[in-house]
Amino acid sequence: MTERTVLISGAGVAGRTLAYWLARAGFRPTVVERAAGLRSSGSPVDVRGPASRVAERMGVTAKLREASTSAEALNFVDDAGRRTGRIPTRLFGADGDIELPRTDLAAILHDAAREHTEFVFGDSVTELREDAGGVDVTFERGGPRRFDLVLGADGLHSAVRRLVFGPERAFVEHMGVYIATLPLTGPPADPAAIEMYNSPGRAVAVHPSRGHGIAAFMFRGDAVPGFDHRDTALHRRLLTETYEGAGWLVPQLLEQVRTTDDLYFDSVSRVRMDRWSTGRIALAGDAASCVSLFGDGSSLAMAGAYTLAEELGRTPDDPAAAFRRYETAHRKLVEPKQRAVPAAAALLIPATRGGLAARNFGTRLLPLVSAARRLVPARAA
Ligand SMILES: Cc1cc2nc3c(=O)[nH]c(=O)nc-3n(C[C@H](O)[C@H](O)[C@H](O)COP(=O)(O)OP(=O)(O)OC[C@H]3O[C@@H](n4cnc5c(N)ncnc54)[C@H](O)[C@@H]3O)c2cc1C
After folding, report:
1. Which residues, 6 or more positions from 190, have their beta carbon under 8 angstroms from its beta carbon?
2. Is the distance from the beta carbon of residue 285 to the nearest atom of ligand 1 less than 6 Å?
3. What is the pLDDT of residues 49-94, one digit of tens each?
4. Separation of 246 CA from ligand 1 center, angstroms?
5. 4-68+98-171+270-339, CATH topology level
6. β-strand 149-152 against 277-278: which pairing, if any?
7. 181 close to ligand 1 (CB < 6 Angstrom)
8. Rounded to the nearest whole angstrom, what is the distance from the C-alpha of residue 352 to the centroid of ligand 1?
9. 183 lines ligand 1 (CB under 6 A)
10. Does the C-beta of 97 come closer than 6 Å to ligand 1?
11. What is the mean pLDDT of residues 324-348?
12. pLDDT at 343 over 60
């Protein structure tokens, strides 16, 4: 019997996890990635909850730990850099959670998947034509090919979703916040803490990431008409205008915004769809259900990819049934995270001076709240 072929669009967290598990389930995966090689964005992401179990089964937990970052607390600072609040990062998660730069996560997943996967870098799908027996795919650069199945794991701005389900505006919801990140040239001032500066509607954080810092700018703003996530000149202008007059290290960080060649900038968005599949084509990760950076997007991407591959392995002759089971199971993890996005945004980027003061006061109470929780017996809670 010939192996079933699967094209996966996107070599991100979901795409590489899918490739690994589909090969284990008896499929022959090909991954097409638009970027020329491994992504450079070092923004820290988390592997936690169900994704920790997926990592364990892949035998990559030790490697993930080796690459983990060192942030033990999120410190809020004022104009002069004085600390105004502190949240220990262990309050966000559980034992076994690992935070690491996305580049390292991608590289570790790549190593796990590459033996049984064909990777094609620097290309993208342009047309998908499905019939009863398979999907004919055309590419920007490579010649046309035919696959049994096509999976879109190509992120927030998914090409597969656009080609099969319709334009981005039907599914992508701007959450009223923009995010920009860039790697810093020097080490962070505090290698054990994320430092965050706020003024109403604006936040800037410096995050330690294995020896160097990553700066993140997050600000509230309505959707910019004609916004293009690839227009770096526009991004530089928006950041300079938005952060004019800000204190702390912001003027120096803006200087680096002007000179860096590695600026990431996008709208913080949620993706919501009524269905994640049709016929022989399905979506995974951010392409299907982005929870924005305020959710557990990387963990959900790994967990969803595992479930999708597992279900396809159970009924390889009936992909539609497998896609339905995957969607039913994975939506249970995704939906609570999607509902929590506005609350997380309010915590990190309060819109008003009053909201900011309340947030900072609340963080001073957090150690008390968590100590009280430990004193209350679990049964009484
Ligand atoms: C700044 C920032 C901070 C974040 N912080 C956290 C965090 O702390 N914790 C957390 O859990 N999550 C975080 N996230 C979210 C997390 O990064 C994503 O949810 C996760 O990476 C989703 O994985 P994915 O594989 O679906 O998409 P991605 O990892 O985005 O991968 C998609 C891949 O598809 C490729 N691609 C795009 N278009 C095409 C195309 N047309 N053809 C071929 N390939 C294509 C892209 O180049 C990319 O490699 C953060 C996100 C951002 C932006």
Report:
1. 75, 208
2. yes
3. 999 999 999 999 999 999 998 788 889 999 999 998 888 887 776 7
4. 29
5. FAD/NAD(P)-binding domain (3.50.50)
6. unpaired
7. yes
8. 30
9. no
10. no
11. 90
12. yes
